[in-house]
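Why should sequence recovery work at all? Because a backbone constrains its sequence more than one might expect. Tight turns favour small or flexible residues, buried strands favour hydrophobic ones, and helices have their own preferences. The token representation captures these environments compactly. In the example below, the structure is given first.
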């Protein structure tokens, strides 16, 4: 059994790693800071099962290269956990001209999924998206899906977390027949490094509210539950909170929005790679 887990170098992802490492044969950790990851894992029991791979979700070329390295070492993936992400200042662009929040929280994960697809299908994988209850405050994204015009850090974050759920739903539409399952979740309000790259006022607000947050270990519980519970006992495409099925916003259940997001994501990737992308469907 092979696991791919993003965002393992902090908070919820680190606790997810600690809990899941004993349960898998190989654990692939795409990380943007290899030195930090190497230091963190050096004394872990079962460290020999870990493969660190450089991959920055805010850089699609890096996602593609990292996925290729991963695929050169693994044939079948049973669980992919898209956990990495965070809140980034509105209006900030990546070197590839993509909104930073859109790339780090959605497009990078979308491309990673596309690139890993053969191994995911071979492993009849579960794909788990760490979304957020913040998706509920997202306004309709039709006018600005890729957040190019967004001037609000919080509104951008709400939208990308909405996208995590829309992506989960559309993934099922395309790939459930090929054996894939997908779930999204809210981890709770968790005391992590979350918000450390946000705009100054958002950072201040988060620092204050963190006083009331749950521990990263508690925040990882629903991800771990989804990764370890047999598929038969889960709802394919379900949104989970506190290890229980929950109902996400009506916007997140709109199949038209999910389709538009999927198509737009493919087009954006093609734009970045100047029409040489390998994305499918
Ligand atoms: N904390 C909460 O209350 C809360 C609530 C709802 C949802 N969430 C979601 O939970 C997930 C995990 O967040 P967290 O609270 O554990 O935050 P965190 O402590 O800040 O951890 C975020 C992780 O994502 C990685 N990451 C960020 N940008 C990346 C990029 N461009 N490429 C590769 N890796 C990247 C970080 O790597 P570095 O170590 O290099 O920084 C870190 O490992 C996020 O998706 C977040 O939106 C959190």
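From this structural description, the recovered sequence reads:
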């Amino acid at each position: 059994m092979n696991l791919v887990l993003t965002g393992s170098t902090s908070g919820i992802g680190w606790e997810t790693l600690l809990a899941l490492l004993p349960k898998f044969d190989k654990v692939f950790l795409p990380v943007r800071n290899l030195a930090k990851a190497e230091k963190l894992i050096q004394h872990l029991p079962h460290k020999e099962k870990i493969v660190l791979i450089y991959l920055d979700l805010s850089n699609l070329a890096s996602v593609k290269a990292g996925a290729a390295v991963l695929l050169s070492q693994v044939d079948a993936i049973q669980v992919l956990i898209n956990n990495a992400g965070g809140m980034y200042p509105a209006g900030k662009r990546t070197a590839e001209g993509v909104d930073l929040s859109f790339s780090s929280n959605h497009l990078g994960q979308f491309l990673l999924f596309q690139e890993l697809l053969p191994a995911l299908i071979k492993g009849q994988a579960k794909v788990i998206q760490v979304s957020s209850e913040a998706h509920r405050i997202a306004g309709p994204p039709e006018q600005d899906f890729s957040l190019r015009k967004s001037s609000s850090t919080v509104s951008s974050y709400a939208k990308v977390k909405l996208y995590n759920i829309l992506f989960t739903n559309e993934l099922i539409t395309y790939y459930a027949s090929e054996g894939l399952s997908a779930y999204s979740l809210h981890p709770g309000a968790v005391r992590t490094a979350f918000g450390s790259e946000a705009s100054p006022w958002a950072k201040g607000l988060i620092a204050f509210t963190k006083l009331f947050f749950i521990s990263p270990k508690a925040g990882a519980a629903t991800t771990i539950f989804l990764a370890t519970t047999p598929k038969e006992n889960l709802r394919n495409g379900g949104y989970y909170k506190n290890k229980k099925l929950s109902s996400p916003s009506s916007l997140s259940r709109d199949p038209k929005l999910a389709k538009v997001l999927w198509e737009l994501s493919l087009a954006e990737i093609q734009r970045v790679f100047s029409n040489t992308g390998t994305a499918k469907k």
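A few observations help interpret the result. The longest strand covers residues 26-31.
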